[in-house]
């Protein structure tokens, strides 16, 4: 009430946020802090020129969200709060350190379907792409923004088709730049999978994207989630075009079929990986030439192994 009574006075908002932050360590205060998120985001929007207030507000929201996720509480920010966060992002779009923090916040917020939909409604995707282009070198920003893109792209609402299409080259650039960073590469692979599912790639994207995903699998073969999502992205590509299937077979860095075998043997206890690999192979055998090649490489043997390993799946 104290904050709401004096929206226009920056010092009141700053003191209010600081006082709320003092309750973060008190577990019994958590349910009450959850009701304060709108007040915090509105204070940030009203005083966007004050970087200190933005940082303190963002830090407090991160604390509240972290506690919420730990306790299994899904915190869905409404459209007004999403708009406030977007306003803040635009105002401080050059401040790399602050953007790193607020992109982490957006990633945590977008875990909620409702919040993800509200972020999509207020038009945050072009801003995310702009941030990625500008700070392609920043692993933390790339990780967070790709995770938000994934959350927004998996939505069944395709109203942003043209905007999502423009996300393909940027996401590919992130993956190319951070191929050796498993955490970022995993996030970028997930985003590319969502974009392929939504049909955002053009015919000229199929071959280079397939090659890039194969590179990500080779360089991060121990990461089960990356392997699973990378294979799901490849399966979506192959479903769209035989070009992608041939790109997997004839990749200049080695046979994609051998890679599939290697990945299965590395993760033979992971049903999610096995399922993704089966889905990819199922898409590949839809093309006669590809199927003959796979047969010559004795893929039946691998399929029998998988069937034996997961008889009830």
UniProtKB/TrEMBL annotation:
Catalyzed chemical reaction(s): L-threonyl-[protein] + ATP = O-phospho-L-threonyl-[protein] + ADP + H(+); L-seryl-[protein] + ATP = O-phospho-L-seryl-[protein] + ADP + H(+)
MF (Gene Ontology): ATP binding; protein serine/threonine kinase activity
Key word Kinase present: yes
EC number(s) stated in the UniProt entry for this protein: 2.7.11.1
Top-level taxon in the UniProt lineage: Eukaryota
Keyword Transport listed: no
Keywords: ATP-binding, Kinase, Nucleotide-binding, Serine/threonine-protein kinase, Transferase
Designated name of the protein: Serine/threonine kinase-like domain-containing protein STKLD1
Source organism per UniProt: Toxostoma redivivum
Gene this chain is encoded by: Stkld1_1
